[in-house]
Specification:
elongated; binds zinc ion; two-stranded antiparallel ribbon; 114 residues
Length: 114
Amino acid sequence: MSDYNWCHGPSCHTKETQSRVRGSGDNKVLRTIKIKQGRYNYSGRPEIITYDDYFCGNHCLYDFIREHLPSIIAIAPRREALETPIKVVKEKDTNWRGDPYTRTRITSVDNDNG
Ligand SMILES: [Zn+2]
């Protein structure tokens, strides 16, 4: 397995930066950025893959998402809303001036208890 990936940004090879210039004389090109895998992986766990391993920067990541959004959504389409059971608790408190107010606090509900 290669230790490098080519940036997956669809327009990476068109961005005019010195780091992309390759070739000599009249045969110069702008080339897609080559990315060393794990370059920003500070966890010490190489099995964790991040988008940094596939995109040279956020501009290329978002270019990719814009171009392939329908396909990305098709991987895991959401056809209905998800819900998280909660409790909404109203509590009396005082603000920094000592004035009373009612605080609304959202707490999670442990599903294992029924
Ligand atoms: Zn790129």
